[in-house]
Amino acid sequence: MSGLPGAGPPPPRFAEAVEAIERALVCLEEGGVGREAQAAALLAALLPRLVALHGPHAVAAVFGRLAAAIADHASPSGRA
Fold it and tell me: pLDDT tens across 67-78, in order?
C-alpha cells in the first residue's frame, strides 16, 4: 500500500486479520468489556502502527479527511 486512503488492493492476509479482530471484539463484548473501551483500545493500538507505517503527516491528513466526511454526514444532533 502506497498510502493510507485506499491505495490499491489490501495487503496479504487482510481478510484473516479482519476476522481475527472481529473475533477478539466479540470475545471482549461477551466478557463484559464495553464498546467504548474496545474502541479506545483499538485506537491506542492502531495509531502508533499507522504513524510508523505512513508517518504522522499522512495519518493526520487521513484523519482530517475522515473527520470532515463524518461531520458532513452527521445529523443536527451530532449522530450520523
Answer: 999 999 987 776
Q: Kindly tell me the burial class for residue 41, based on how many C-beta atoms sit within 10 Å of its own C-beta (0-12, 13-18, 19 or more).
A: middle
Of the chain, the end-to-end C-alpha distance in Å amounts to 29
- The Cα-based distances of 58 to 17, 21, 43, 62 in angstroms read 23, 24, 16, 6
**Cα dihedral value 49, 53, 58, 61, nearest 10:** -30
Cα angle value 21/55/39 (rounded, 5°): 30
